Amino acid sequence: MKKILTIFYSFLVILILIDPFIHKHAYFGFDEYPSFYGAYGLVACIILVLAAKYILRPIVMRGEDYYDD
User: Fold this and answer.
1) Residue 67's pLDDT is what?
2) Which of 12, 10, 6 is closest to 35 using CA atoms?
3) Is 32 in contact with 24 (CB distance < 8 Å)?
4) CA distance 56 to 64
5) What integer pLDDT is reported at residue 6 of this predicted model?
6) What is the pLDDT of residues 2-54, one digit of tens each?
7) For 34, which of 20, 44, 47, 51 could close a Cys bridge (C-beta 3.0–4.6 Å)?
8) Cα–Cα distance between 16 and 19 in angstroms, integer?
């Protein structure tokens, strides 16, 4: 498992390093920034986790003895 993570992180670092040298066909002005899509994905993931934890969990969560009745 550690070897797979090492390969994954190495590949991730290589992608971050070569990203400024890749020409992008941007539709908007802000998506030309280096590593924009990586940062966008990270922020979206954090928002989804926080929404699941603080908004959806109280709605779906049942009491500890819900099925015992």
Assistant:
1) 83
2) 12
3) yes
4) 17
5) 96
6) 999 999 999 989 988 888 888 888 888 888 888 888 889 999 999 999 999 99
7) 20
8) 5
